[in-house]
């Protein structure tokens, strides 16, 4: 699920990307729970991605600024809860977060340092309760089928943004 934030920098806007653990696991060859335990049945952050209006996006912009977990040490428990890795083999999340910073975060350094990048994504997750939004519209994680238009409409009504799904 994608939500858009605008910015006037070296790119045009951000995608705030969340994923449903069950869908991730259903669409991958395999998935593994983080070493910190099974994630909650809630959307998890996938990333905060700079993007351009023409569909292109910058990536891996600053190899001289690698992920440094010590810069986000005060955010780690929130990241483990809200930004869990589902990749195999199981991990703590550090490899996933490193990938997200190196590929996407380094392209947003004109706006955020490393701590600010991860904190902004966590704050957006806290601000945009996607599961609550959908449940409030009667769309529940119950194995039922819901139309794409009803899902998009519920998210658009609650956030003011049209999601990409």
What is the average per-residue confidence, as pLDDT, rounded to a whole number? 91
State the secondary-structure class.
alpha+beta
Shape: globular
Strand content: 5-15%
What is the percent of helical residues?
A: 25-40%
Number of helices, where a helix is a run of at least 4 consecutive DSSP H or I residues: 6
Largest sheet: 3 strands, antiparallel
Q: Within the CATH hierarchy, at the fold level, what is the topology?
A: Ribonuclease Rh, Chain A
Strand tally, please? 3
- Determine and state the CATH class: Alpha Beta
Look at the structure and name the CATH superfamily. Ribonuclease T2-like
Number of domains: 1
Radius of gyration: 16 Å
Q: For the largest beta sheet, what order do the strands appear in spatially?
A: 1-2-3
Termini separation comes to 5 Å
Q: Point out poorly predicted stretches.
A: 1-8
By CATH, the architecture is named Alpha-Beta Complex
SSE string, helices as H and strands as E: EEHEHHHHH
Blueprint (SSEs and pairs):
Elements lengths: L1 E5 L6 E7 L1 H7 L16 E8 L24 H7 L11 H10 L10 H14 L2 H7 L11 H12 L6
Antiparallel strand pairs: 1-2, 2-3
Helix pairs in contact: 5-6
Describe what this molecule looks like in 3D.
- The protein is α+β, with helices and mostly antiparallel strands and 165 residues long.
- It has a single domain (13-136), classed as Ribonuclease Rh, Chain A, CATH 3.90.730.
- Helix content is 35%, strand content 12%.
- A three-stranded antiparallel β-sheet has the order 1-2-3.
- A hairpin with a 6-residue loop joins β1 and β2 (13-19).
- α5 packs across α6.
- The termini are close together.
- Residues 1-8 have low confidence and may be disordered.
């Amino acid at each position: 699920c994608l939500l858009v934030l605008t910015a006037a920098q070296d790119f045009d806007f951000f995608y705030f990307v969340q994923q449903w653990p069950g869908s991730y696991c259903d669409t991958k060859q395999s998935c593994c729970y983080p070493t910190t335990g099974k994630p909650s049945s809630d959307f998890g952050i996938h990333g905060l991605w700079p993007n351009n209006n023409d569909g292109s996006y910058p990536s891996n912009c600053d190899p001289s600024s690698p992920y440094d977990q010590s810069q986000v040490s005060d955010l780690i428990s929130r990241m483990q809860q809200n930004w869990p890795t589902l990749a195999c083999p199981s991990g703590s999340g550090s490899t996933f977060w490193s990938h997200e910073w190196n590929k996407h975060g380094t392209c947003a350094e004109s706006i955020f340092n490393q701590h600010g990048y991860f904190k902004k994504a966590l704050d957006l997750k806290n601000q945009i309760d996607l599961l609550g939004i959908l449940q409030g519209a009667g769309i529940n994680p119950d194995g039922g089928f819901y139309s794409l238009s009803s899902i998009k409409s519920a998210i658009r009504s609650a956030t003011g943004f049209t999601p990409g799904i």
